[in-house]
Amino acid sequence: xxxxxxxxxxxxxxxxxxxxLAHAIQTRSEAVLLARxxxxxxxxxxxxxxxxxxxxxxxxGLHEIRAAPEHQVSGGPAAV
Length: 80
Fold this sequence. Notes:
The chain is α+β, with helices and mostly antiparallel strands. 16% of the residues lie in helices and 48% in strands. Strands 1, 2, 3, 4, 5 and 6 form a 6-stranded antiparallel β-sheet that branches. The two termini are 12 Å apart.
């Protein structure tokens, strides 16, 4: 099953909806590795194992990034 990488902004006004950053990634492990590397490319970043997401902070604020199977985006991607 193909996987995608989704990202959203977390702010004082709440969470934005998930946006697709990349798709058609062949395996879950590749997608998770890519999401982790994208997050860690920012100086301030980490992981939230309880939510199964990575996070990073840039000049626009805090963001979450995750890998999930494609086509499971209603209300956000399913946790993997």
